Amino acid sequence: MDMTDFGPIIKKRKRQDALFNIVGIACTLVGIVALGALLADMLADGLSRLDPQFFLSFPSRFAARAGILSSWVGSLMIIAVTAAMAVPLGVAAGVYLEEYASKNWVNTIIETNIANLAGVPSIIYGLMALGLLVYGLGLGQSVLTGGVTLAFLILPIVIVATREALRTIPQGIREAAYAVGSTKWQVTRYHLLPYSTGGILTGVIIALSRALGETAPLITIGALTFIAFLPPSPVSTEFPFLSFEWIWSPFSVLPIQMFNWVSRPDQDFIVNAAGAGLALITMTLSLNAVAIVIRYRMRRSIKW
Amino acid sequence: MVDSVLTSQAKAEKPARFKAEARSLSFFYGEVQALKNIDLVFEENKITAIIGPSGCGKSTLLRCFNRIHDLYPGIKYEGELRLNPSGLNIIDPKTSPLEMRMRVGMVFQKPTTFPKSIFENVAFGLRLRGENGKELGERVEQALVDSFLWDEVKDRLDRSAYDLSGGQQQRLCIARTLATSPEIMLFDEPTSALDPNATSKIEDLLVSLKESITIIIVTHNMQQAARISDNTAFMYLGELIEFDRTANIFQMPSEKLTEDYITGHFG
Questions:
Q1: Do B114 and A173 touch (CB under 8 A)?
Q2: ipTM for the complex?
Q3: DSSP structure string for A180-203
Q4: Residues near A198 by Cβ (< 8 Å), separated by ≥ 6?
Q5: Exposure pattern of A140-153 as b/e (b: 16+ CB <10 Å)?
Q6: Rounded Cα gap, residues B140 and B116, in angstroms
Q7: How many other CB atoms sit within 10 Å of the CB of residue A17?
Q8: Which B positions 197-216 lie with beta carbon below 8 A of chain A?
Q9: Per-residue pLDDT reduced to its tens digit, B105-121
Q10: Residue A246 DSSP class
Q11: Is the dihedral of CA B86, B91, B96, B99 positive or negative?
Q12: Could you tell me the pTM of the whole model?
């Protein structure tokens, strides 16, 4: 009987392995290098602009005096409204669809379309908000309108993230909770929500950092590109020490400020735009860092 | 009919009291009939073992008792499953599944440890029943004592229950169920994920529990059924093939199928 010579076969297969290794590294590097180059370019342009004055000044006709005070405050306020609306709505809808809704064709259609909604271009949400919120409900071109618009935009992401997080909980945990006599709400309240908090928060934060960078829908509803005052403070000196006047205020956000500056011919404004871009990317990266920490901590306390 | 299921030998002893009785019990997953006209009695304060090859319907039968089937769509019960002494029909649509789960406890194949502290794992069922404060603590302690776990965990009640070994976690789940003082406790292959040492502790525990609780256990492990149960039911393809005192089933089964199964010819 002939002995098969495995040598050449093994050699050939090892070459394939080595080849894909190189291809894989190259593909990975394309993304990382591109991002790195963008960051480096922005750092080179804008780092010199990042001083306290830049963060504490309103926009100005003079590039050297212009700052991003109104736009970073605007971004924070918009995100606050977005989170306040998208989190409760999205989590509730996700829990309903995953745990309560019976599996019939109506719900199947709803579920499919929620996944589709996540793919709707953001400017469409802007048009919807312009018609419905600004004119229809008369909310004006306010922080409230902006926040609600972005909340609609990220709602599908929050719903999907909630459902994914709930799906990682083993069915045995649900059965065990029901088996001692829980109602559906008690299972949800005492088990499912606590155990999926990490996953839900991660999804919420990713969604919020996407909302933070959104420009198109906010321009559509008429966010200002030049604003030289701050919305009223949310804390007041009089009882009840909280004020919600700010949600009615006009606003700008960081990406709109950037867009405005980039479109000017003056080179000094381009530098300003890079500085604003650095501020924006710092905000989103720190949000993502928070998500990573949360995910890590939840993984340590829950093992299934 | 139901009484004839237990042999004359059993009847010669003092009359048995039945905690639960299945009469022509059938169960369907959609179109698939998983239980076919089961007639079976479950003696009070005894351990009844249900054995049979995979897919024979033994877990399905067990899961009728706490209506856990009702969590899933497309299921259907037929016949009766009576809970004595009141004779309440467990599977009647008018009977609340929630009530059955308050009265009938269940322990699963894999430990269903919640990612909470040891104390909260045991306290959960009690909290649902509105217990709190000092009495809650006492009942949690009692349940842990009764499940042979207290000495191992008393110094670390607020630590994560995941710090416990598999066997300890399973006893913790037993404690959680025990704490709610159920009338019947269902065990669905409770030791199949455990090593022999942990298994033997659970078996000792089950034998001690039957003093106060009626126990029904589904097991793949025939030695386990022989060691701890008083009565054994052998099921095959959704039907009850034979039901008798455990000693009779294992020493002189009257059905050929039972004999083939317990001697390892199939299953």
A1: yes
A2: 0.91
A3: TT--HHHHIIIIIHHHHHHHHHHH
A4: A165, A294, A295, A297, A298, A299, A302
A5: bbbbbbbbbbbbbb
A6: 14
A7: 9
A8: none
A9: 999 999 999 999 999 99
A10: G
A11: positive
A12: 0.85
